[in-house]
Write a structure and sequence with these properties.
Layout: H1 9-15, H2 19-35, E1 43-46, H3 52-57, E2 61-64, H4 67-75, E3 79-82, E4 95-101, H5 110-120, E5 121-131, H6 137-147, H7 161-170, E6 173-181, E7 197-198, E8 206-213
Length: 218
C-alpha cells in the first residue's frame, strides 16, 4: 500500500539541502545533541524518514511506514524496517534508546506509541523526542499551512510540549532534560550559530525532550 509520503520523499529530502532547510536542520540537530550528546548502544529512530537525523546522530536502525522514505534512509547506511509506530515489530527490552523527531505529529494515537516504545526499550532505556510545539509561532504557522492543504503538513496534528509531557508520564517515562531552539520568526532564515536554550519556551519553534523509562507505569 502506497503511503502519502512515498511520492514526496525526494522533494522532502531535497529541502534539507536548501540554505533554509540546512540551517533549520542544523539548529534542530544541535538541540537534540545538547541533551543527548551520544546515542550509545543500540538505538532506533521511529519515523526515520529519509534518515537525516539518524545518520548524523549515529543511530543505525530506523522504522517508517513509507517505502519511499526508507529507500533514501537505506542509502545513508540505516538498517531499515517497514512498519507502524503503533505496532513495533521488535521484541521487548531490545533497544538502549529511541528517537522520535517530528514523528508524533503524524501519529493518530501517541499514547499507544509511547507504550510501544516503553515495551521495546531496555529497563534503563532513553527516549529522545523532537517536536514543533503547537503553541509556538512555528507551530501556529504550520497549522495554517495544514489548513491550506500543504502536501506534508496536511497530514500533521501538532501537539503542545505539555501534552507530550503528560503522555510520557502516563505511559511510564520520567523527564530528564529539555532544550529548545529556533527563536526567530518562522519566515526568517535561522542564524548559522543557533541559540540553544535549556528548558522549553513558548517562543521556540523546536523543543527536544529526553525521557528515561521508569520501573512502572502509572
Amino acid at each position: 500500500m502506497q503511503q502519502p509520503f512515498d511520492n514526496l520523499a525526494r522533494a522532502y529530502d531535497t529541502w534539507y539541502d536548501t540554505p533554509r532547510g540546512r540551517q533549520i536542520f542544523e539548529a534542530e540537530l544541535k538541540c537534540l545533541q545538547q541533551i543527548c550528546p551520544a546515542c550509545q548502544g543500540r538505538w532506533l529512530e521511529i519515523g526515520v524518514g529519509t534518515g537525516r537525523f539518524a545518520s548524523r546522530l549515529g543511530i543505525r536502525e530506523g522504522l517508517d511506514p513509507s517505502p519511499g522514505m526508507l529507500e533514501l534512509a537505506c542509502s545513508r547506511g540505516i538498517t531499515t524496517s517497514l512498519g507502524s509506530a503503533e505496532k513495533l515489530p521488535f521484541e521487548e527490552n531490545t533497544f538502549d534508546g529511541i528517537l522520535m523527531a517530528f514523528t508524533l505529529c503524524f501519529i493518530q494515537h501517541p499514547e499507544k506509541v509511547f507504550r510501544q516504545c516503553r515495551s521495546v526499550l531496555k529497563p534503563d532505556g532513553q527516549l529522545l523526542v523532537g517536536l514543533i510545539p503547537a503553541d509556538s509561532p512555528w507551530g501556529k504557522l504550520y497549522q495554517e499551512k495544514k489548513n491550506q492543504g500543504h502536501p506534508i503538513y496536511s497530514h500533521a496534528r501538532f501537539l503542545t510540549s505539555d501534552r507530550i509531557l503528560a503522555i510520557a508520564q502516563e505511559t511510564g517515562f520520567q523527564l530528564k532534560q529539555t532544550a529548545c531552539t529556533l527563536f526567530g520568526k518562522p519566515d526568517d532564515l535561522p542564524q548559522a550559530d543557533p541559540n540553544i536554550a535549556p528548558g522549553i519556551s513558548e517562543q521556540a519553534g523546536f523543543a527536544a525532550l529526553r525521557f528515561s523509562k521508569t520501573s512502572q507505569m502509572e
